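Extended Data, panel c. Modelled sequence:
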Amino acid sequence: MYTPTSSVGVRINREQPPSKLIDLARQAEDAGLDELWLVEDCFWAAGIATVATALAATSTIKVGIGVLPAVARNPAIAAMEIAALAELHPDRLIAGFGHGVPSWMRQIGAYPASPLAALEETLVAVRRLLAGERVSVTGKHVNLDEVELVFPPSTPPPLVAGVRRPKSLAIAGSSADGTILAEPSPPEYVRTALAGIAPGRSAEGAPPHHALVTYNWLALGDRERARLTVADSLTPGARVQVEDLPFAAELLELVDSASTVDELAAGLRPEWIDRLAICGDLDDCVAAVRALHEAGSGSVVLLPLPEEPPERGIEDAGRVAAALRG
């Protein structure tokens, strides 16, 4: 069961080479953080391999895959990999699935006819396989014939969905144990996402509990350090994540008019950055994390700025977590 209410985690960003993973994972655990998250983006390091390494290098911290593209793996093979990790490292794995970036999925020949059906069918099939069921299904994307794991995990790990739009959020509510919200995820978006998840939660067969995980950039000490990174994260797909902010109209007008990321970054007002990242002095960062917890994010995952040493970001995340518990 995955039901965090006030967890603080950190993400090791995709820019870090695998050779640094063991040391960074151990640093995150030593910093007292609750969770460590790793991404699988094409064509950086793969999620199962990196999460397996992080789990083996640590002993207590939970490790999340955030996220595997649902269409890039056969669900039976994905369930086999997840089951092995869950059995080797009980109660420490969180497995995430998402749609996958459309351009990347097309690039590898894996873009599905129906992304929504592919995600839902994958989540349902993997959940059933991890529960030890024998599964037969003929779907729009998933086709299994009497598949059953020989070694299902004693305790199935939680499956979470990395999604952002209403139809996908509803699928997360009906088929997953939690939802990951990408950066930026201010409290306003947390509340909107929970409303989008709610219809799925009432569906027959929905998991009994649902946790919300939020990603946000961390710039402890100086918001200006986050300016360019925040601007770069304001992609067209992120519109839904900021449209409920009180300054959304001005921000989106700037996003539409800026011709480069540098131009967009230059136009971001300081008070906007304060809402689009966890930044400022320690008290400011603690207050921002607490606001996310109060809005409904059970796990707040802090993202080191990709252009800075990851060790600094992990250390700062640990300071925020310690002060929050303080």
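The chain has 14 helices and eleven strands. This feature is highlighted in the accompanying rendering.
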